[in-house]
Amino acid sequence: MTGAGTKGTTLGGRVAAPAVLPTARGRAVRTEVAVIGGGLAGLVAALAAAEARAEVVLVRRGLGTTAMGSGALDFPAELPALWISGPSPCPGPESVVEAAEALVRWLGAEGLRLEDRPGAGLSLMDIFGHVRRADLAPASLAAGRVDRWPGAGEGGGGRLLFVEVEPYGAFRAEWCRRAAVAAGLVRDEQTAVAVVPVPGLEEEGDVPAVRVARALEDPDTGRVFAAAVAGRARRAGATAVALPPVLGLDRSPQVLLALELALTEAWSTDGGRPPVVFELLSPPPSVPAQRLLRALERRARAAGVRVEPGRVTGPAGGPDPVGRTGWARGLPVGAVTVETHGRTWTLAARRFVLATGKFVSGGLEAGERGLREAVFGLDVFVPPPPGWPPGRVPAGSRPARDLVWDRFTARHPVFEAGLAVDGRLRPLDAEGRVAAPDVLAAGSVIGGASHFADGSGSGVAAVTGFLAGRLAAAEGRRGA
Using an 8 Å Cβ cutoff, are 419 and 432 in contact? Predict the structure, then answer.
């Protein structure tokens, strides 16, 4: 990985960081695997490549669209038919299981425990009283599956306490309680409501969930809050306690532990069993989703992945110490240009993993002439709407507005749009040829899946990211 006259620092036989070479344009970095995108697909790809002992640089503009989710993961046991050519149309069940196990292991190493399995179909409630489906979820969310609520079992008793946290105004405990009763999830007499302020925030107005989560990470604040919740739960005779998802960000296990210890102490006088504590889902931006991606990023850094902020603007177009003089379809890209805080630098790699997502994250762009892939200008495909001739149709010939109709959960072609790839996840052009032999795609930038119709977004991201990272590591070494 080191350039001429440059030596990398080794750690356990591995080069600990990619070489940095000064250039007239800024700097240039060499590595074996470069991952473009910092969402779930990109972080999983980087971790998989690093675990396969590759040198990895990840470039990200932010945490990715997964951070805009609830923190619970849609992870079906079988993925939808992605546009992957080869003997099978999509990764098989064994790849789904392997990727899920790796994700659980990586997050567990950071103290974030994922529960259940692909295809589990957990029913969880959000802060507005709506029940949502998920397959894998952090323990603090999974503990609130509605089939385990008081009264859900045969002859089940107990009481569920909804705790409103001031000054987090997005959650109204009484509203959620009424919604749960109206939906028949729990009987009216089995519910109670309490309001608990966060010490130090009493004088503030309506604050976001992240502000509350950060405040509760202070040990003294967390202990006072936990004692107050335990007291309310004890007076209500609660067997379960539901809170909005504000129990810490980077130190969430410690915040939850403080709350569980306070409840155990409150119930210790009569030897009773303390109530189960869980967090409700929330709309974006969600604290649990940010916990998940921040934990993956910490794990990636610990594994030797170099995480760089920036935006990849495209293939490196000019001569430089590590790049090439341009890029033509069918040839390796070799190097890309990255813009960070207004300055540009060059990233060269033996393999690139494109994990830039679809529309929200900017991986695909929509214009009057149709859709385009934002980094390399690769061909984007969409399925034809009903009544059109069968076969793949390049989206460049049809504006995006023609691909959307009224029913949101229908299979809108625009939501299935994406790249077509070969069995090694390399993007194909409109003639079915490999467009860039050193580029692999991962996540929702690959076409064929509609998250809104399939409920498969996290699974597609994790499984294809896992496979792309492993392939990139193996092929990068062969190409050395």
Answer: no
Q: Strand pairing of 311-315 and 114-116?
A: unpaired
- Total count of residues recorded for the chain: 480
Q: Which residue has the higher pLDDT, 69 or 180?
A: 180
Average pLDDT, the chain: 85
Residues 253-265 pLDDT 10s: 999 999 999 999 9
**How many CB atoms lie under 10 A from the CB of residue 158?**
17
User: Which two three-digit tokens encode residue 208?
Assistant: 């976001």
Question: Tokens standing for 165?
Answer: 């946290």
Averaged pLDDT for residues 226-233: 96
Nearest to 480 by CA among 438, 439, 441: 438
Q: Delimit the domains of the chain by residue range.
A: 15-108+290-478, 145-279
What single-letter DSSP state applies at residue 206?
S
CATH fold, domain 15-108+290-478, is: FAD/NAD(P)-binding domain (3.50.50)
End-to-end CA, the chain:
9
Place of tokens 């679809």: 358
Q: Domain 145-279: which CATH class?
A: alpha beta
3-class SS at 390?
coil
88-138 pLDDT tens trace: 556 888 999 999 999 999 999 999 999 999 999 999 999 999 999 999 999
Q: Are strands 439-441 and 343-354 parallel, antiparallel or unpaired?
A: parallel
Q: Say which residues have a Cβ less than 8 Å from residue 348's Cβ, sequence separation at least 6.
A: 28, 29, 30, 31, 34, 316, 322, 323, 334, 335
CB of 246 within 8 A of CB of 287?
yes
Distance CA 18, CA 55 (A): 7
Phi, psi (5° rounding) for residue 33?
Answer: -125, 125
d(CA 34, CA 37) in angstroms, rounded, equals 10
CA distance 190 to 48: 46
Angle (nearest 5°) at CA 122 between 120 and 127: 155
Q: Closest by alpha carbon to 57, among 277, 361, 303, 286?
A: 303
Using only C-alpha atoms, the chain has a radius of gyration, in whole angstroms, of 24
Residue among 437, 443, 311, 359 at smallest CA distance from 44: 443
